[in-house]
Amino acid sequence: MKTYDWIVVGGGIAGAALAYELAKTGFSVLLLEQYETPQNATRYSYGGLAYWSGTTPLTCLLCEEAIARYNILSQELDADIQFRELDLLLTISAANDPEATAESYNHFAIPPRLLSVQEACELEPLLNREAISGALTVKHGHIHPEKTAQAYIQAFLRAGGEMQITQVLQVLQDGVKTTTGTFHSANVAICAGGLSRQLLKSAGIPVKPIRFG
Ligand SMILES: Cc1cc2nc3c(=O)[nH]c(=O)nc-3n(C[C@H](O)[C@H](O)[C@H](O)COP(=O)(O)OP(=O)(O)OC[C@H]3O[C@@H](n4cnc5c(N)ncnc54)[C@H](O)[C@@H]3O)c2cc1C
């Protein structure tokens, strides 16, 4: 049986993008997704790209690269991912000092611009001018997440990647066991979204709990 360089588990945006990038680099890749039409986080996502919000050297670099990447992605994948930039409006409550609020965003990769109440209402006429002391605005990226994942998968297949609809039951030392058979690979990438921890746990790989806040 064929041994792939990589098996990627999960056909959401993470798995689709990773499978594409690996195939583009020249690896043999098998992408496994459990559903023909996935009901995943990617499908229900709003598709907002907060690539202005990096706050560390690493996240700022990722933001910078994301802007460059999304600007050419439709062309590279040969499909319309509906990338566009929107004016995000972050209102500042009347009880808060607008200058101090704007300053608290100064360490962001692209600090939002401070707007007066008048300017904010011109941008969004339905705002209650009595309730705000100003607003912040910044260009916020937007894509169609499901179309982007599909575009990645189609480009992945064109690059020679293989895909099967099957559910991964177990991660093995040299591949994965699924509902339709066992597949072999040198590496396995788990991109199963909210189900990733369960799969990793079943393979005996400990995962630290994430703490927010
Ligand atoms: C309502 C909503 C709005 C959001 N808005 C935004 C936003 O504006 N901006 C933003 O950046 N993020 C947003 N997110 C978050 C974003 O959607 C997710 O972070 C992202 O889609 C996760 O992608 P993923 O590929 O990791 O997971 P998923 O999209 O969940 O894909 C995982 C895939 O793995 C498959 N899978 C799981 N287990 C197995 C198995 N055993 N075998 C085979 N396949 C398996 C699943 O079927 C699924 O297709 C939003 C999320 C939601 C729910």
Structural overview:
The structure is a single chain. The N and C termini lie far apart (47 Å). The longest helix is centred in the N-terminal third of the chain and has 21 residues, at 57-77. The chain is elongated, with a radius of gyration of 21 Å. Strands 7-2-1-10-9-8 form a 6-stranded mixed sheet. Strands 3, 4, 5 and 6 form a 4-stranded antiparallel sheet that branches. It has helices at 13-25, 41-44, 57-77, 98-103, 117-123, 145-158, 196-202; strands at 3-9, 29-33, 48-49, 84-93, 113-115, 132-142, 162-165, 168-172, 175-178, 181-190. Strand 8 and strand 9 (175-178) form a beta hairpin. It contains 7 helices and 10 strands. It is 34% helix and 29% strand. The chain has 2 domains: 1-43 and 145-213, FAD/NAD(P)-binding domain (3-Layer(bba) Sandwich), CATH 3.50.50; 48-143, no CATH class. Helix 1 (13-25) runs parallel beside helix 6 (145-158). With 213 residues, it is an alpha/beta fold. The protein binds flavin-adenine dinucleotide. Flavin-adenine dinucleotide binds at residues 9-15, 32-35, 38, 40-42, 44-48, 167-168, 191-193, 195, 199.
Q: What is the straight-line distance between the termini?
A: 47 Å
Which percent range fits the helix content? Answer: 25-40%
Residue-averaged pLDDT: 95
Number of strands: 10
Q: Give the SSE string.
A: EHEHEHEHEHEHEEEEH
CATH architecture title of the largest domain: 3-Layer(bba) Sandwich
What amount of the residues lies in strands?
25-35%
